[in-house]
Design a protein that fits this description.
The protein has a single domain (6-124), classed as Deoxyuridine 5'-Triphosphate Nucleotidohydrolase, Chain A (Distorted Sandwich), CATH 2.70.40. It has two helices and eleven strands, in the order βαβββββαβββββ. The longest helix has 7 residues, at 72-78. By secondary structure, the protein is mainly beta. The strands form four sheets. A four-stranded antiparallel β-sheet has the order 2-11-6-8.
Length: 152
């Protein structure tokens, strides 16, 4: 497993009680916590909330970005998911990480102060060199999309 250097700045007292650390030796993501100044935050059905994670990071490898993913248990059991699907933290961003949570359930959900709300995963990035062309190469699939390759 390849490791990269990342500096972390703790911005909220929630982190004085917890460590930003991998849960197991083979965990892909770091758990982000709700760094709110109230005991709990209510998110109504269909509503979104930008929840501060209480950290800022400096990724020391310019070809790596951080991605904010939903926690599987929170999404499956509570219906709270990252609202845009995946949040992207560019390697040159230095501000506080915030997690936009969407309540996909039909009930009010509550986030407690310090609760694990998302996971942060580091992955390589590639920037494309774009070349304008008049025609694209052909394939068997062509422009078929949205189920054009069948259900099975």
């Amino acid at each position: 497993m390849r490791k990269i250097d990342v500096n972390v700045k703790y911005l909220h007292e929630v982190w004085s009680e917890n460590d930003l650390a991998y849960a197991t030796d083979y965990s892909a993501g770091l758990d982000l916590r709700a760094c709110i100044d109230v005991d709990e935050l209510e998110i109504g059905p269909g509503e979104k909330a930008a929840v501060p994670a209480g950290i800022a990071i400096e990724i020391k490898e310019p070809s790596v970005a951080a991605y904010v993913f939903s926690r599987s248990g929170l999404g499956t059991k509570e219906g709270l998911t990252v609202s845009q699907g995946v949040g992207v933290i560019d390697p040159d961003y230095r501000g506080e990480i915030k997690v936009s949570l969407l309540n996909t359930s039909g009930e009010v959900r509550r986030i407690k102060r310090g609760q694990r709300i998302a996971q942060l995963v580091f992955m390589p990035i590639f920037q494309a060199v774009l070349a304008p062309v008049d025609e694209l190469g052909s394939t068997d699939r062509g422009a078929g999309g949205f189920g054009s390759t069948g259900k099975h």
